[in-house]
Amino acid sequence: MSNQVELKADLSELEALRAQSLRPNVQKFLEKEILLANERLNKSVQAEARRAASTAAASSTGSAPRPLKKITTFAYDESDKFVKLYYTLNGIQNHPADRIESKIDEDSFLVRISDFNGFDYEFSARGLSYAIDASKSIVKPKTDLVLVMLKKQEEGKTWGKLLKLEKAAKIDLPDMEENPDPQASLMNMMKKMYDEGDDEMKRTIKKAMYESQQKKEAGFGLE
C-alpha cells in the first residue's frame, strides 16, 4: 500500500509540473512520464486486489472442519418385513434434506448428517445379522429422531439382533430427560426390568415394547 502512496505522489507532482511548463519538448516529456506513472499505479492496484482475493480464498479453504459426532445408541425394533432403528436427534425434522446422506448395502449402512447445530453426525452398522434389500431400505427424518428402516430380504425372519457379532438385540431407549414424555418413567422402569430380568422376562418385555411401537407407527405406511 505504501508503494501506491508514493506512486500517487509522483503522479501528482508530474501533473503539477506539466501545468507549469511552457516549452513543448518539456511538456511532451512530462506527458510521457505521467502516462508511465499512471500505468505503474494501475498495475500496483491490480496486484493488490489479486493478493487480497488469494488471501480470502486461502482463508476459506483452510477453515477448520466441523467436529464430527458419531451416534452409537439407538432403539431397536423389527417387523416381518423391516428392522427399524431409531436415532435421537432433537430438531432434526427441520434440517435440510440434502444435508442428510445415506449409503446402504446388503450387509451395512452409513448415515451422515452435515452441519446440524454446528456439528456433523454419523451413525453406521457393518456386518448385519442377515441380508437386506438396499433398494427398499430407507432413511427418514422424523420428529426429534432419524428412522432407519432396513428391508429384510427374507421376510418373516426374526433377527433378534442387529449385527452378527452381537450377543443380544440392542434395545437402547432415547434419552427421555432431554425430551420429556409422560411415559418416561414407565419406559425407564421397563428397561430396568429388561436389563435385570431372566430370559422369560426379557421375551415378555420385548414383545410388549414391539407391539406398542407397532401401534405408534401405524401412520408410517410401511410394514
Please outline the helices and strands:
Blueprint: H1 2-20, H2 24-61, E1 68-70, E2 75-78, E3 82-88, E4 100-104, E5 108-116, E6 119-126, E7 138-142, E8 145-151, H3 184-196, H4 199-216
Parallel strand pairs: 1-6
Antiparallel strand pairs: 2-3, 3-8, 4-5, 5-6, 7-8
Q: Compute the gyration radius: what is it?
A: 34 Å
The structural domain count equals 3
CATH level 3 topology of the largest domain: Immunoglobulin-like
Portion in helices: 25-40%
Give the topology string: H per helix, E per strand: HHEEEEEEEEHH
The strand order across the widest sheet is 1-6-5-4
> What is the count of DSSP helices, taking H or I runs of 4+ residues?
4
What proportion strand?
15-25%
Name of the CATH architecture of the largest domain:
Sandwich
CATH class wording of the largest domain: Mainly Beta
Global morphology:
rod-shaped
Pfam families: CS
Protein name: Calcyclin-binding protein
InterPro entries: Calcyclin-binding_UBL-bridge, CS_dom, HSP20-like_chaperone, SGS_dom
Domain CS: 69-163
